[in-house]
User: Which sequence fits this backbone?
């Protein structure tokens, strides 16, 4: 492997980083050697070289165990980042060689809740109009999608807007949304035209996204209204929340845009007041030179989301 040098000291290469990561993961030289198909002496030697090149000790040797010092834990994230970026470069080179990337290949990341009812028909129509285009879709959380865009693993991301996104990325408005209550058709609250926090006192709830910003806002709103939520299920997609509501588990408080895509289920959807507002945006790398087909997909998404909101 190609070596690199640190301030005139011994040369390092990616194998040193791989061995360091393996020892951190397994806790022993023997296990790391077995994992990597190397001899114990080779792993020990590489580890000594790694520590010498960095000029710091990373482990305490206790019998057969390698106990990491705080310095080792601090360096692990950087080592994994370097190895991850190297692996992605190799994957990209392979994709370029095989034709799986290029001006007619797009990578799109979006929320999991968009994976079933919202994006498939939009992407399918887009591809029918462009038979030479291929698309890879990846679904995850807002933080995961932002990272994918920042690391150039995807061309386009769709996320729930956050102020931090606008500081680092180009943001294109996609849709505004408000939370709604989703309930079984025969629920005791079905006669109400609008649901308030106090209506939910003692009502079994289906809650999304624990520890996320939107969930924190909901928890604060309920607390200000003197309501202690009766949480029956914690889940992480609007699709599953609506399905649980349809099966009589309780009331789900979710984004209306995605909830209305599940109208085929035996559910009722009621506005929630005071409204919890959400904004969905498209993100790309700031100043990125997007291929024309990516720009076309962005325009298509903006138009389709506008129709969904009508």
Assistant:
């Amino acid at each position: 492997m190609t070596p690199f040098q640190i301030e005139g000291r011994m040369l390092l290469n990616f194998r040193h980083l791989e061995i360091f990561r393996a020892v951190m993961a397994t806790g022993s030289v023997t296990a790391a050697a077995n994992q990597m198909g190397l001899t114990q002496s080779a792993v020990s030697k590489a580890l000594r070289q790694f520590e010498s090149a960095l000029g710091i000790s990373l482990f305490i040797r206790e019998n057969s165990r390698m106990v990491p010092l705080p310095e080792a834990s601090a360096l692990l994230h950087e080592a994994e980042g370097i190895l991850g970026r190297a692996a992605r470069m190799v994957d990209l080179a392979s994709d370029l060689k095989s034709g799986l990337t290029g001006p007619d290949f797009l990578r799109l990341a979006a929320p999991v809740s968009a994976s079933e009812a919202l994006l498939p028909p939009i992407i399918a129509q887009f591809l029918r109009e462009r038979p030479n285009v291929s698309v890879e879709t990846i679904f995850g959380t807002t933080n995961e999608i932002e990272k994918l865009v920042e690391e150039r693993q995807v061309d386009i991301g769709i996320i729930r807007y956050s102020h931090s996104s606008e500081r680092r990325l180009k943001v294109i408005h996609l849709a505004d949304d408000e939370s709604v209550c989703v309930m079984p058709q025969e629920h005791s609250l079905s006669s109400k035209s609008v649901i308030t926090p106090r209506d939910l006192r003692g009502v079994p709830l289906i809650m999304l996204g624990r520890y996320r910003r939107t969930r924190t806002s909901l928890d604060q709103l309920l607390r200000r209204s003197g309501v202690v939520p009766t949480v029956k299920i914690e889940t992480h997609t609007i699709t599953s929340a609506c399905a649980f509501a349809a099966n009589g588990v309780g009331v789900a408080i979710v984004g209306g845009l995605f909830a209305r895509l599940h109208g085929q289920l035996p559910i009722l959807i009621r506005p929630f007041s005071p409204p919890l507002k959400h904004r969905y945006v498209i993100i790309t790398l700031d100043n990125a030179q997007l291929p024309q087909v990516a720009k076309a997909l962005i325009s298509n998404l903006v138009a389709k989301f506008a129709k969904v909101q009508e």
About this structure: Residues 100-175+279-309 form a domain with the D-Maltodextrin-Binding Protein; domain 2 fold (CATH 3.40.190.10). The mean pLDDT is 87. The chain has three domains: 4-97, 100-175+279-309, 177-277.
